[in-house]
Amino acid sequence: MKFALFLGCKIPFYLQHYASATRAVLDALGVELIDIEFNCCGNPINDLSRESSLLLSARNLALAQQQNLDILTPCKCCFGTLKRNAYFLKENHDLRQEFNGLLKDENLHWDGHTEVKHLLSVLAHDIGFEAIAEQIKHPYKDLKIATHYGCQSLRPSRIMNFDDPLDPTIFEKLVALTGAETVEWRRRLECCGNPVWGKNNQLSLDLMQKKLSDTRQAGAHFLCAACTHCQIQFDTVQDAELIQHGSTDKQASLLYPQLIGLSLGLPEADLGLENNKVDISGVLEFLS
């Protein structure tokens, strides 16, 4: 099984441990990742220039097709943007031909066959729950996790085909493979607040704090994220707020490949546990 790995712009700069943990977990599960020199997915410019966003996505799709590979990304924003833009380009022949004309100078072309998949989808559907369960070496005991889906993977559901947008379960099922228990919390599908960070910081923090409080009330020991922006919000932004206000009222967030990587018996260094801003070393106490 082989995929082109799309890390996007933020993971290599802000969350290198998300990349290393993803690589380690997929390698352990027999997935080969191919590095291609992709450009931005197109998400940051989408509201300024729809055409530019489509062109950026089209080039990425064409680069993957050139190597006969589907795209795997651990970033929900990249997943959402590439998936939506691929849908529009695939459904509109004239639009696709227009952008293929712009890619012609690079000898690139996209005919609509490249699939875009998120890390969680590959784990659940391509590798499969049963195959993963067979590889678990150190299941957790009594660990309670609050799963956080993020916004861009679930809607529009007919395009994303990720999970039920109103009652998703894929994340909970993947967490359960590790032996951890997921808690029910009412704000699990609400925005983390990161999209408005830098524009309205107070609103961003209010959204985050409400979610963190909700997970604590639900009895979760940790949050678990599989989205670049959500992890930055719950880890980097939360850490900065804790330092600024001298607070100890925290709720640390694990990345899913860190959570499952430990239960697969992978080295802590490969999973980058020390790189989380808000300390997550306490999760080790729950390993059997």
Total number of distinct structural domains: 2
Mean model confidence by pLDDT? 96
Outline type: globular
The CATH topology of the largest domain comes to Rossmann fold
Reported for the largest beta sheet, the result is:
4 strands, parallel
Number of helices: 12
CATH architectural category of the largest domain = 3-Layer(aba) Sandwich
CATH class of the largest domain: Alpha Beta
Strand content: 5-15%
The string of secondary-structure elements, in order, is: EHHEHEHHEHEHHEHEHEHH
Contiguous runs where pLDDT drops below 50 for at least 5 residues: none
Radius of gyration: 19 Å
Kindly report the spatial arrangement of strands forming the biggest sheet: 2-1-3-4
Supply database-style keywords.
288 residues; single chain; Glutathione S-transferase Yfyf (Class Pi), Chain A, domain 2; globular; alpha/beta; 8 strands; Rossmann fold; four-stranded parallel sheet
How do the helices and strands line up, and which of them pair or pack?
Elements lengths: L1 E4 L4 H5 L1 H13 L3 E4 L14 H17 L4 E3 L2 H16 L1 H11 L12 E3 H15 L10 E5 L8 H4 L9 H7 L4 E2 L18 H17 L4 E4 L2 H18 L7 E3 H8 L4 H4 L17
Parallel strand pairs: 1-2, 1-3, 3-4, 5-6, 5-7, 7-8
Structure description:
There is one protein chain. This protein is of the alpha/beta class and 288 residues long. It has 2 domains: 117 residues, Up-down Bundle (Glutathione S-transferase Yfyf (Class Pi), Chain A, domain 2), CATH 1.20.1050; 151 residues, Rossmann fold (3-Layer(aba) Sandwich), CATH 3.40.50. It is built from 12 helices and 8 strands. A 4-stranded parallel beta sheet has the order 2-1-3-4, with helices on both faces. It has a 4-stranded parallel beta sheet with strand order 6-5-7-8, sandwiched between helices. Helix 3 packs across helix 4 and helix 6 packs parallel to helix 8. 46% of the residues are buried. The model has no long low-confidence stretch (mean pLDDT 96).
